[in-house]
Amino acid sequence: MSETFAFTIKSTGLDEDYRPSDNTRITTNFANLARGEKRQENLRNTLKMINGRFNTLAHWDNPEGDRYRVELDIISVEMAMDAARPDNALPLIEILKTRIIDLNTDTSIEGIAGNNFSSYVRDYDFSVRLLEHNRGQPGFSVPEDFGALHGNLFKRFVNSSVYRAHFNKPPVICISVSSSKTYHRTDNYHPVLGIEYRQDEYSLTDEYFKKMGLKVRYFMPTGSVAPLAFYFFGDLLNDYTNLELIGTISTMDTFQRIYRPEIYNANFAAGKSWRPSLEHQDYSLTRIVYDREERSRLGIEQGRFVEEHFIKPYQAQLEQWFAPSAH
């Protein structure tokens, strides 16, 4: 299979001058922030929030709270079904890569790849396939092989020579916890990740990421009001440095305050037993414009795109590649 197709990576800086390219996944949340009259103000204020959050968490040897600056790169992953025709590549995944600038020592520290996670095939699975599977059914159910294709593609990418050439550690993806589950505070506390939460049953998203080879833990960092879901390979607490983890926390805690203010910008913190809800009313809004309805609509449109240009044309080939006997 590795001889048949090829991954390519493109990197674009996410700063206040960022403009989504014509071929970007426009459902990517940071692309949503970068459109409209307030685009530059949105991006500038988002980056200020990230830097402020980083310096608050990295408070040692940082008396003025201004030692560090976080820089972000959008990593766009494309996959050519025919390695001999890289010009025919399809967009597959977009993630964020953090870079930490120590202004005291004028050094650059590589952060973690992953953070935000955006995927055409996931749009297809959740916004097209899952809805069609349940249309007209009396109860909710999930197709037996739900997420298998996406999981296999992701694992192939992370294990590829292309990934290893660009990143020195496995990815960590950090997203919102599920509003369908109840989370319970534990006694485990990490100096950077904060208080650990657990739940009794994995969510559909947790199971989906499990097929990508990722484990999950839930932590509420100091200064946050709700736990974040961290998806990772290996050992989250020991494989990454404090500054690497803070880069991910500061980036994704900021984005979640913008995307999910009902949960992550609530006016009180999660308790011992807590269930997140987008119906919650006691929260504060940031001054950053984010169009959540557009995000949902475009998820369906781009799910249809990948169905037309990837799933249906290559279905037989993909099934052959990922059949158990092929390994």
Automatic annotation (TrEMBL):
<dbReference type="InterPro" id="IPR015004">
    <property type="entry name" value="MesX"/>
</dbReference>
<protein>
    <recommendedName>
        <fullName>DUF1852 domain-containing protein</fullName>
    </recommendedName>
</protein>
<dbReference type="Pfam" id="PF08908">
    <property type="entry name" value="MesX"/>
</dbReference>
